[in-house]
Amino acid sequence: MIAPDYPEGATPLDPNELAGLKHRHITTQAELDELEQANITSGLLWLSRTRRKDVLTDGFAIELHRRLFGEVWNWAGTFRTTGKNIGVDPMQIGVRLRAALDDALYWLDRGTYAPVEAAVRLHHRVVFIHPFSNGNGRHARILADAMLEKLYGVDPIDWTAGADLMKMNERRAAYISALKAADRHDLGPLLAFAGVAEKP
To answer: Which CATH number is 15-154 given?
Structure first.
């Protein structure tokens, strides 16, 4: 079985979750990263082709995770059932995710926030909930971008700025720090990370 090498801020998988790896020949983190990236590329292709506009539904959020990770993990698209070092109690995931998506729909309908700020707020809420065993950051970033492109008709956020957010570097450190600040109800660093200038 693979012994993953997690970057700072990543959520470790428990042995049962690791046993959900569909490819037994994978033994290194690099091989796993490559396999996941290929799956994500396939998922993004599906996303670009789908005509669905229901991106702010739990059904879509679940299907998106399955499309992004379902060729690698047999639990992809299934809410986690175990407690983690972050995230809400597993019993609350469905209700909390539905509330986050409903709020994002309300912001869209009422023009509560500028599009990118709405996307950043949704992204943080979904990461905070941590619905799945793994891939939550990537899933939440892609979900936020899908909302921007399909519902607001604007360009996605440049989350990576040319860096690899799956490896420890300055960009990932800034991202993790911004998420922790948002957990403390200070969204400023995460908005700045996403390229939103602070209002004077």
So the answer is: 1.10.3290.10
